[in-house]
């Protein structure tokens, strides 16, 4: 088992060295658990070598597309019931003729794309910016999502607060009531994922207009009304809604004082011992007795002040 773990890790490192992004199994498992148990078919629009899809059992029908043919070939080898297509999901989408009940994805973060006018993007108020394809992937996913479907998408946290075109699309997604939940994932939660990320759960048939915010690091969750989200200018950063109360340690002033006294006395004793030793060994070149008298004067002055107060 240990050997297996070791070789799995070196395999991942090899892939990373080749610039291939690897989806850690525990991340795939975490994302899978955000979907119901009865998934019978699942689609990943940027499926890579099938890491996310591999979290689903062999009998589940798996659909995927990736721009990198080598990755699709690996996915084909490792997955059962896999229908993979090589190609650019944004420029040459496969599966446009159908809808999926469940979609899972971790598209590349904030890559460039060539905006195209097509039916996937036409409902949104504006096209996503050419410099950042994150919302293009999200709109693609939303387009292929069935009415009663759910999509779990890992993304870069910038999509939660960036403005301009992305801000307009985010506002539209909120107003259309497509966002069910936003989860903040701390960096290093999953192996191979050092930076903080976020997960959006999209749902085309939500029961309420509320949005649930979850902080995975502190394991807290809050349901927020659309009005509150609107009041925050449709910023979806989890930290805007979940304020972590750091427990304030009760400070006992007596304990604090006695700690200060003890450390001052210990410090004074150690200093005087060292000065005494130096005085014995190298002679009193700096009038050690005078220094002690100075200390005594400070003590007497303070004692007098104490009597007055
Ligand atoms: C973060 S990885 C996703 C890994 C994948 N979910 C897995 O489980 O292994 C991003 C993937 O997006 C692919 N990709 C990037 N741009 C793409 C595009 N325009 N169309 C399709 N795939 C794309 C990359 O080749 C890469 O495999």
Task: Give an overview in words.
- This protein is an alpha/beta fold.
- The chain folds into two domains: 15-240, Rossmann fold; 253-308.
- Helices cover 37% and strands 18% of the residues.
- The protein is built from eight helices and nine strands.
- The chain has helices at residues 2-17, 25-32, 69-78, 134-144, 164-175, 226-231, 253-282, 288-308; strands spanning 41-44, 61-66, 82-86, 100-105, 145-155, 179-185, 197-203, 211-215, 220-224.
- The strands form two sheets. It has a six-stranded mixed β-sheet with strand order 4-5-7-6-8-9. The chain has a three-stranded parallel β-sheet with strand order 1-2-3, covered by helices on one side.
- The protein starts with a helix and ends with a helix.
- The relative contact order is 0.08.
- It binds S-adenosylmethionine.
The class by helix and strand makeup works out as alpha/beta
- Helix coverage percent of residues? 25-40%
The CATH H-level superfamily of the largest domain is Vaccinia Virus protein VP39
Strand content: 15-25%
The total of helices stands at: 8
CATH fold name of the largest domain? Rossmann fold
CATH class of the largest domain: Alpha Beta
Concise overview:
The chain is of the alpha/beta class. About 35% of the residues lie in helices and about 20% in strands.
């Amino acid at each position: 088992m240990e050997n297996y773990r070791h070789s799995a890790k070196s395999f991942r490192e090899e892939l990373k060295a080749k610039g291939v992004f690897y989806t850690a199994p525990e991340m795939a498992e975490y994302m899978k658990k955000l979907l119901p148990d009865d998934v019978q078919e699942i689609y990943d629009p940027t499926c890579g070598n099938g890491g996310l899809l591999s979290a689903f059992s062999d009998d589940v029908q798996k659909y995927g597309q990736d721009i990198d043919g080598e990755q699709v070939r690996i996915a084909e080898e490792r997955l059962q019931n896999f229908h993979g297509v090589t190609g650019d999901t944004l420029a040459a989408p496969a599966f446009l003729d159908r809808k999926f009940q469940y979609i899972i994805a971790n598209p590349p973060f904030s890559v460039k794309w060539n905006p195209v006018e097509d039916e996937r993007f036409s409902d949104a108020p504006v096209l996503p910016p050419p410099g950042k394809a994150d919302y293009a992937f999200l709109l693609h996913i939303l387009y292929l999502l069935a009415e009663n479907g759910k999509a779990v998408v890992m993304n870069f946290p910038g999509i939660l607060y960036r403005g301009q075109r992305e801000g307009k699309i985010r506002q539209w997604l909120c107003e259309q009531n497509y966002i069910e939940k936003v989860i903040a994932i701390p960096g290093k939660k999953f192996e191979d994922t050092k930076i903080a990320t976020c997960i959006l759960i999209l749902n085309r048939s939500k029961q309420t207009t509320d949005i649930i915010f979850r902080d995975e690091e502190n394991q807290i969750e809050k349901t927020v009304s659309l009005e509150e989200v609107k009041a925050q200018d449709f910023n979806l950063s989890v930290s805007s809604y979940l304020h972590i109360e750091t427990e304030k340690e009760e400070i006992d002033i007596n304990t604090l004082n006695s700690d200060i006294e003890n450390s001052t006395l210990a410090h004074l004793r150690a200093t005087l011992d060292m000065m005494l030793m130096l005085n014995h060994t190298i002679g009193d070149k700096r009038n050690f007795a005078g220094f002690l008298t100075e200390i005594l004067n400070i003590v007497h002055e303070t004692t007098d002040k104490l009597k007055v107060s």
